[in-house]
Amino acid sequence: MQVPPFSLNEQLSQIGQDLDTAVAKTLRSGQYIGGQQVELFEKSFSETINVPYTVSCNSGTDALVLALRALDIGPGDEVISVSFSFFATAEAISNVGAKPIFIDVNSNDFLINPNLIEDAITSSTKAILPVHLFGNPVNMDAIMSIAKKHGLKVIEDCAQAAGSYWKGKSLGSIGDIGCFSFFPTKNLGAAGDGGAVTTKSLELARRMRDLSIHGMPKRYFHTELGYNSRLDALQAAVLNVKLPLLSSWVEQRRKIALNYIKNLKDLSGIELPKDSSVNGTINSWNQFVIKVKNYDINKDSLREEFIAIPNQIRTYLPDSRCRDLLRQNLSDKGINTIIYYPIPIHLQPAYSQLKGKSHSLINSELLCSQVLSLPIFPELSIEKQDYVVQSIKDLINCQ
Q1: Helical segments of the chain, H only
Q2: Which residues pair with 213 in a beta bridge?
Q3: How far apart are CA 75 and CA 227, in angstroms?
Q4: Does 352 or 134 have the greater pLDDT score?
């Protein structure tokens, strides 16, 4: 049996005709930049997130850049965030000339540890950028309390968290700005790159829209250097078909996650994520990530192609061979998994200048040697879920 980590095949079989119709209608309209489809998506997404303003753009990375620029964050400024995330989180901070200040994450939920934030605040700190990693909501009460106390802005990285809530509030509606990605593998995915920023502020919305079209508040009048970062009408048409299905897809993801948790809970060789859905808090389960512990293995059986970390980086990280062996053996059974993330951002070559200057990031480094994302997408059949579960049980128990 083959089990992919993510697949659009079943989804396309269900809504393919609607997508074809929407795309063909947009093509025939001749309106490919802006227009009705983009306006409809921005209005609908604002209603979904419960904010007055959504500005669409061409990627989640650009969403972060637009947010930082709109808040006047640039050279000499510091932004507190995490190293255990996709590279774009820090890359966007650096690309506006600011400096990312990495603090550690919790080992149990992979999210920024609010208790470490205040020690990282300096006179140069301008914002906190929490990452709702894997769809799991950060403790936004704690984040907003710290930000208010120190006069800081909050940018929510919601790239993996469309459809997630913190105590009844949609992620992306709590901080000053929310940043979303519509990369095809996300909970709400386009047919290519796409992104959006959400905000309650008319002033910020106007600024981000101007920045997304070359710093141009009106045609051929440019008030600052901006970007060419617009959501294509074709992508908006795809998203308009998918957006009404987001909540049902998130619910199906949750059912799959709970099935994994129920059936894998007694294995001592792995640690499972916890379901945080209580009192209006909803994890959208963009990924289902387990931690593989250092159980006894035959390390000589580990194939080198499953060790993707360069030697010069690997020397800084804990031993990942138990995780890599489990991944290898699952692959041999046709079960494809993904490692989010094998190298923390602060150990990436692009940030070598920060070496020795960051706060302690023990958990971030350890997680990179432990985490493994199991297959999860709304249409994953119970038969394939059971096959994943039984294969893990067989492999862990036989070690």
Answers
A1: 9-29, 36-49, 60-70, 88-95, 117-120, 140-150, 202-212, 233-242, 246-264, 311-314, 321-332, 362-367, 382-397
A2: 228
A3: 18
A4: 134
Cβ atoms of residues 168 and 49 within 8 Å: no
Helix axes 60-70, 88-95, angle to 10 degrees: 40
Which residues lie below 8 Å from residue 135, measured CB to CB, with a gap of 6+?
160, 161, 163, 164, 187, 253, 283, 284, 285, 286, 287
What is the distance between the terminal CA atoms of the chain, rounded to a whole angstrom? 22
Is 50 exceeded by the pLDDT of residue 399?
no
> What CATH code would you report for 9-103+110-245?
3.40.640.10
Q: With DSSP H G I counted as helix, E B as strand and the rest as coil, what are the percentages for the chain, rounded to 5?
A: 45, 15, 40
191, 164, 182: which is closest to 249 by C-alpha?
164
Pairwise CA distance, residues 45 & 180, whole Å: 11
- CA angle, corner 71, sides to 193 and 144, nearest 5? 95
Query: Of the candidates 282, 299, 295, 311, which has an alpha carbon nearest to the alpha carbon of residue 163?
Result: 282
> Domain 246-397 belongs to what topology?
Aspartate Aminotransferase, domain 1 (3.90.1150)
- Cβ count within 10 A of residue 252: 17
Residue count of the chain, please give it.
399
d(CA 132, CA 397): 33
Instruction: Give the CA-trace dihedral at 307, 311, 317, 318, to 10 degrees.
Output: 60
| Residue 388 one-letter amino acid | V
**What's the rounded Cα separation, in Å, for the pair 381 and 375?**
11
Write out pLDDT tens, residues 117-136: 999 999 999 999 999 999 99
pLDDT digit string, tens, across residues 204-261: 999 999 999 999 999 999 999 999 999 999 999 999 999 999 999 999 999 999 999 9
Question: Could you tell me which residues are beta bridge partners of residue 78?
Answer: 99, 125
Question: 3-class DSSP state for residue 292?
Answer: strand
Q: What is the pTM of this model?
A: 0.95
Do 134 and 61 form a contact (C-beta atoms < 8 A)? no
All structural domains of the chain with their residue ranges: 9-103+110-245, 246-397
Bridge partners (DSSP) listed for residue 271: 291
For 236, phi then psi, to 5°, come to -60, -40
DSSP 66-135: HHHHHTT--TT-EEEEESSS-THHHHHHHHTT-EEEEEPBPTTT-SB-GGGHHHH--TTEEEE--B-GGG
Query: Residue type at 167?
Result: K
